[in-house]
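Hello, quick one for you while I still have it in my head. A protein chain has come my way and I'm curious about its shape. I'm sending you its amino acid sequence along with the backbone structure tokens. I'd be grateful if you could look everything over and explain what you see. Here's the protein in full, and shout if anything looks odd to you:
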Amino acid sequence: MSRTTIQQLLGAGVHFGHLKRKWDPQMAPYIFMEKNGIHIIDLNKTLVKLEESCAALKQIAKSGKKVLFVGTKKQAKEIVAAKATNMNMPFVTERWPGGMLTNFVTIRKSVKKMTSLENMLKDGTANTMSKKERLVLGRTKAKLEKDFGSIADLNRLPAAIFIIDIKREHIAVAEAKRLNIPTFGIVDTNSNPNEVDFAIPANDDAADSVSLILEIVGEAINEGLRERKSEKADEKESSEKASEEKKTPATEEVAEVKAEATEE
């Protein structure tokens, strides 16, 4: 069963592409027609690609790995932050820090520094400093939190990245490709779908379009997380049951022991 319908996609304006003069020829297979100088995306293709992406993302989530969501354009920031938080996944909505993936060790150092400054403010260490020093510390912490607060729990490289507007986030795409990290992206008619592993042809400018795509993707990821939790619970139950069986002798063995005792 499909996770959405063409009617829902139409309602969110997913089919609206860019002006014809701004198109990328590589998007030709995903363009249905041109209307008033604007390319219209083939939503049948969008449905297929969305299903493929959801299936892959579900498996990644089920394996317990992280997907990093990237969306720094104004109309996508709040949506990406809200949807990613709901999935318990890391995200980047401010500028993409150069080397975020390719120089991950340095990025982690900045995150640790942010955590250290937070602890200094909480445990009262900052109270022993001068007013000026506390002010500098607070500003530094605020800046680090703005840039890295949303990836504080990302202790290792993500298993995949999901990008809104792959043309705008070309540095993120390039870093992921360099490290062979699978890339997923909402790809509008002005972008090259071959730049990512899983391209979802859709309007990447309209808030409703981005929100609907992320909602569908989020459902798939949360399904994977629920299945992982369920399987872990089943494994734990089976393990406990096996442990109990080892502690308790089998009925037949007990019967044999009783019989031997009686004969003696």
Helices lie at 6-11, 43-62, 74-87, 104-122, 131-148, 170-178, 207-247, 251-263. The chain has a mean pLDDT of 90. The longest helix spans residues 207-247.
